[in-house]
Amino acid sequence: MSINGWLQIAVTLALVLAVVLPLGRFMAALFTGERTFLHPILSHVERGFYDAAGIDPAQEQGWTSYAMAMLAFSAAGFAALYAILRLQGVLPLNPMGLPGVAPDLAFNTAVSFLTNTNWQAYSGEVTLSPLSQMAGLAVQNFLSAATGIALAMAVTRAFARSGASGLGNFWVDMTRATLYILLPLSIVVGLAFVALGVPQTLGGAMDANTLEGASQVIPLGPLASQEAIKQLGTNGGGYFNANSAHPFENPSALSNILAIWAMLAISAALPITFGRMVGSERQGWALLSAMAVLLIGGVALVYWAETAGNPIITALGVDPSLGNMEGKEIRFGQAMSALFVAVTTGLSCGAVNAMHDSLTPLGGLVPLLLIQLGEVLPGGVGSGLYGMVVFCVLAVFVAGLMVGRTPEFLGKKIEAREIRLAVLAVLILPLVILGFTALAATLPAALSSLNNQGPHGLSELLYAYSSAAGNNGSAFAGLNANTPWFNTTLGIAMMLGRFAYVLPVLAIAGSLASKTRVEASSGTFPTTSLLFVGLLVGVILILGGLQFFPALALGPIVEHVLMHASATF
Amino acid sequence: MSSPALFNRAILLPALRDAVWKLDPRTLMRNPVIFVTEVGAALTTLLWALEPDAFSGQIAAWLWFTVLFATFAEAVAEGRGKAQAASLRQARSDVQAKLLLHPDTDDGLYEKVNAQTLEAGDVVLVETGDVIPLDGDIIAGVASINEAAITGESAPVIREAGGDRSAVTGGTTVLSDAIRVRITAAPGETFIDRMIALVEGAERQKTPNELALSVLLSGMTLIFLIAVVSLWGLAGYSGTAVSVVVLVALLVTLIPTTIGGLLSAIGIAGMDRLIRFNVIATSGRAVEAAGDVDTLLLDKTGTITFGNRMATEFLPLPGVSAAELASASLLASMGDETPEGRSIVALAKSDFGLQDQSLIGAVLVPFAAQTRLSGVDIDGRHVRKGAVDSVLRFAGVTAPPEFTRAVDQVARSGSTPLAVADGARLLGIIHLGDVIKPAIRERFAALRAMGIRTVMVTGDNPVTAAAIASEAGVDDFIAEATPEDKLAYIRREQVGGRLIAMCGDGTNDAPALAQADVGVAMQTGTQAAREAGNMVDLDSSPTKLIEIVEIGKQLLMTRGSLTTFSIANDVAKYFAILPALFVATYPQMEALNLMGLSSPQSAILSAVIFNALIIVALIPLALRGVPYRRVGAAALLRRNLTIYGLGGLVLPFVGIKVIDLAVTALHLA
User: Membrane spanning segments where (chain A) (predicted)?
Assistant: First the structure.
């Protein structure tokens, strides 16, 4: 680790911090129906959509109709994307003449982009046409992110309102999230990427003559625009298989900073939006602080583990001063790779600028754990916020009893119904991740996909299911996931991780919205203090993480101790 | 009511027997955490029976102990209630009742019947020495009654027909006079019957917070079940054969058995604490609600001020010294045994250093309702004090203007003026006012720090009420309060989502008592009031509301603290068991053996033993409750989080290590 490295990390995070307040306030204004500076330009377009679809924007939806609208919208999105992928061969904008995608891969990919996971069991540049990328994947990159934001706003309103039956209107929230947030930001960030050298073309590929005189096909496409929404919407599905490690997707140290900034911006601003809408910006900062503590802890651990290097390689006579550089890009270096690793998994983004499979065991433990903690640090756009609210509900319940009152969060009493639903939600991740991993670990058909044996092989399996269930989408690699078994089970894991989680959360929102909001007194448990931040961190680690400890012990942890005993696999 | 010590032989021995009975899986099903532990215990016992070895035998034994300790905790908590129920049952003996044959006439003819055959609406005659057969209302007569059977207080109380003191309770004894009582409760539904059912926990249902906590604990059990079952698959991949016994041991140590085992004991003990405080709650829900109370409606008289007005000042007329007025007041009050009279004597002595006067040869004129004055005739002097108009009539003078002004001034402040005269000479006025109880202001400040608003309810006019309110430091007051005002105030607060507690005793308090979230009826109150409230205070002390709130808070705090402790324990248990599980396959795992436990088997056994023993160790805390401090929530949270959160993290590291040393020394593993 070096001061210089930490400075790079600090500057990047400071750039994020700078946008958190204005963006958070802007979103709060937008979702409470106030006019923003973008309204003069966009409000006509917005109204046009409602008119065309026959939506009454003033119509409030209860939690069930909100959920039904979201599910119907997602089902339609799935059908459209699945059709595009299967029919790719006969559709236009296919300069390389790529065939239609196989059913299991099309299912997996459609679910993946629908759930904001962007798990990619294929290499984009040799499997998908620009039409599939733009009209298929990129559309879902916008819509799945907007859906996440909409859901988070519904949950936020549950606390902001008192004795209400409605949580807002899904169609309105979704439209506004796309039109006022994702689209304008994508245009700005996309142009910035172009300025930093990311290609943007509809031409198919270029032929190049290499230094050896050989000829090489270099795939190209509308990269900058894809890249912008891939990062902003915490999607993470790269145009290329190498994702943000590819020099076209992420050509320089500056573009790397921009990529990290774009990943974090909306998710980090949403807690402030939450705080502002519930009438306590301090609450937003408290949530953001808890997220930041764990995330920065993760960055530090990766950075430390990676610069400490691998004693086995050092023993071979390799200069250890750079640390473990396997799978990393020299142009980013250790610090900014560590930051990217932690951020992309603390968020459910899943873009990668270094190969996670090549991280040291402890360096690889961090992304795994950050995903397993529930993708709340700060999590995917929207999904991170509502996941965090579930943890808040649990933290307030456990500790709130300790002050001798029925626990309440932001003036809403947390009772048996909310706890039952919150437990249902937090049950999903361990059930899906551990269940599928254990199942795969006993199936020869699944094990044949592994590149490595021993604990590292287990980490690869565990990572795949964690990434899918957490809707992260990054891969540990080292696993041939494009098989019917993995395409199907990972697809199911992604669906459960998104929908089986969010439905109980929406039900909590519905139940809380109807409760009367009680003003806080000195007898209520303060949820904006440093103590609460500490408590929240503890609850996330213990209730969210402890159940994964045995699996992690058999994967990265044992690999770490074995590495120091010079064992390889 | 008797208050048994925390543990004694009379409770422990039956509790041990009950603990075994409670192992019945059909009853244990209600407690999922302990039920899973029992299933684990049964499974390990079966495996041990199939393939006996010392290690799995010990694990099985300790798992059974874990379950047994949990059922024992509940049995002990219940045992304390049962002891109280037994003493209550004695009061409900099968008494003979004198059923009046013609209740509408005064012929007094009655028939002796067994009390159990009475019905509501019957009228019975109860005479000196008789036990009142069932709950009822006095319709004629007045009597002094010993209510020790329910209140534990042997001083007799007066009950009379009409008004707010007409209710009598079955099982209490008439000490003098005779009354006619209309029975209001059928046999088996009387106050004592309900008390017995409550202290025995027969009607115990999970309270809302307890239910929510049970859901969370069940959820955690399920999560760890997933983790342990999946570990079986993962360990297989890693080439480690993990025995089922060890997996069960891991599961039981990870699931929240500590709080799971103590949860119902905590609830029963909370109810029990209230009963030992001479307050009967009709449900556990009411006790919990007490902890949540935001606003206390307190009657001024008896709670904030002393029940009677007291002399606070002597106001002499011009030409009279204060000492002279005090001396005359003292003389005039010597024959006045009312609390007001005694307070005048006390004030004269304390403020003017006067002594009791010799009354040899004096003629005392005691206070009488007709004359409304008292005094003494001594050495030819006729000293009187009393109601202003009475004293003026006695003195036969018209009031001088300065006298009238002073009288008006005292009256306007909400106090009572008493006039003092020596023969025809008016001396001045005694100011009889409300005296605020000492330290009540600090009490209210502490409540405010706890986040509880206090509202004073008084019949005084707004000016007086405001003065007393600001002196006592309450947050708000209702002046010239009618029962409707109280009800309206409660409703208004509840609309804002706040929970209200109040106490009352009159029939006209009943609607407000029923509307309040916590309504404490006085035992001396009417039947209607006692039916409407969800608690009855056997001591009839309005100040108790404050303690009731604290007992409610203590109940919730104990649950929360032990839950936090239980969950925090898991970290250490992982570090004991996981390295032990895999060290055979990966010897390097020894690095995770932070506690330096001597062998894998000892590590697992020690964790299981710790997990069982901690339940027993915490039974006293569960029964006594986590101490409540009158500080704000933030300070309370910091304190409890440090003790039970951090303590829960650290303690098992030490405990498991110590047990490991013992296990190794004894060659148990």
Answer: 6-28, 66-85, 137-156, 177-198, 253-273, 285-305, 332-352, 359-377, 383-403, 423-447, 490-509, 530-553
